[in-house]
Amino acid sequence: MNNFRLHNPTRIHFGKGQIEALTNEVPADAKILMTYGGGSIKKNGVYDQVLRALKGRNVLEFSGIEPNPTYETLMKAVEQVKTHKIDFLLAVGGGSVLDGTKFIAAAALWEGSDPWTILTGDAPVKKALPFGAVLTLPATGSEMNSGAVITKKATGDKLAFGSLVTFPLFSVLDPTTTFSLPPRQIGNGVVDAFVHIMEQYLTYPAQAAVQDRFSEGLLLTLIEEGPKTLANPNDYDSRANMMWAATMALNGLIGAGVPQDWTTHMIGHELTALYGLDHAQTLAIVLPSVMHILRKQKGAKIIQYGSRVWGINSGSESERIDQAIAKTRHFFESMQVPTTLKAYKIDSSAIPKILEGLKRHEMTAMGETGAVTLEVSAKILEACL
After folding, report:
1. Does residue 125 sit in the same domain as residue 36?
2. What is the torsional sign of CA 311, 314, 316, 319?
3. pLDDT tens digit string along 294-308?
4. In angstroms, rounded to a whole number, what is the distance separating the alpha carbons of residues 355 and 25?
5. d(CA 14, CA 228)
C-alpha cells in the first residue's frame, strides 16, 4: 500500500426529510445564490422544500446549468455573484450542478486574468466561496469531493479541476428526491459510480486489502441494487443504497494508498465534448475496451475482480478475463446504457478527432504506469466500435 493522506471535511445529512437541515447549516445572515439545472426540482418538490428550509433568508437563484456544465453559462453565474455580492452558494441538483457550483465558487474569488486557467491548471485554486449541496441525482460523488469537470463550448474542451477549498461544507442526501428520475438518469448514475470504483481498483495488486474489499463491496452493491432501482423507482432502500454507494465511490476513501487509472474518463471526456454523449454513456463504451486492450498489465486485478465480484473461478486466465469483461458489458447494458460507439451512430471517423483532443490536452501517457500512449488509445477506440 502506498503512503497517503486522507481528509474529507464534508458533513453528510442522509435520509428522508434531511433537507430541513439547511435551516441550521446555511448561515442566517448569508446572501445565498441557489444554483440548479433545467427546473426538475420545481416539478418534484425539492425546490419548495429548500425554500421552506430557508424561509426568511436572502435567496437569489441561478438556473440553467447544463448536464455537462459549460464555462460560458457558469461565468454568467459568476457575474451574478459579483453583482449581488453573494457570499454563500447552494447547489441543488445532480453532479453537473455541483460541479458547476464548485467552479462558480472558485471563479468568483479568482484573482487571475482568465478564470478558465482554473481548469488548465496554470495556477492553484486557493480561495472559494463557501457552498453546500442538496443532491437529487446520485452518480458522480461530487457531493463529497472537491473535483469538478467543466466544458468550454467555444473550444470543445472538457477539463477537470479540484482544490482543498472546493469541498462542499455539507451535502444533503435524501433518497426520496430520486424517485421521479427517468430510467436513463438512474442507469447512467449506476454506471458512473461503477466506473469510478473500477478506475481506482482495476490497476495492479498494491497489497491494499481494505481498499480492495471496500471497492468490491461497493461494486456488488451496485450490481444488486441497480436493477431494483430501475424496476421499482419508489423502492426507498434500493435508492438509498445506490445513492450512498455513488457517494462512497469517489469521496477519497477507496482511492487512498492505491494506484489509479482514469484512462476511461479521459477518453470519455473527449467523446462527450465532440458528440454530446452523456458522461456515463461514454464510460460504458470505453471501460470494457480498456479492460480488453490492457488485459496483460491489468490481468491479475481483472481475475480478482471476476472471482470476487462475479464468481468467475474456472477456465484459463484468458477465459476468465474474457468472462469478466463480458459480465461488465452485460451489466451496463442491463442498466439500459449501450456499450459500443455504433449504438450511438458513431463510426471509425471519430477516432482521429478523439486522438487529437487527447493530444491537445496532453493525455498521451495515461494509466497507472503511464503506458496508455496515443497508439494504445487508438486501439482502445477501435475496440469500442
Report:
1. yes
2. negative
3. 999 999 999 999 999
4. 45
5. 20
Residue 178 to residue 174: CA distance in whole angstroms? 8
Q: Quick one: average pLDDT of 246-261? A: 97
Better-predicted residue by pLDDT, 334 or 123: 334
Grid coordinates representing 70 are 459549460
Among the candidates 145, 177, 209, a domain finishes at 177
CA distance 260 to 89: 31
Tens-digit pLDDT profile for residues 284-334:
999 999 999 999 999 999 999 999 999 999 999 999 999 999 999 999 999
Is 0.90 topped by the overall pTM? yes
Q: Which of 292, 294, 265 is nearest to 281 (CA)?
A: 265
Interior angle at CA 312, CA 311 and CA 318, nearest 5: 160
DSSP 146-183: SEEEEEETTTTEEEEEE-TT-S-SEEEE-GGGGTT--H
H or E element at residue 35: strand 31-35
Residue 5 placed within a domain? no
Q: Are residues 147 and 212 in the same domain?
A: no
The β-bridge relationship of strands 88-94 and 131-137 is parallel
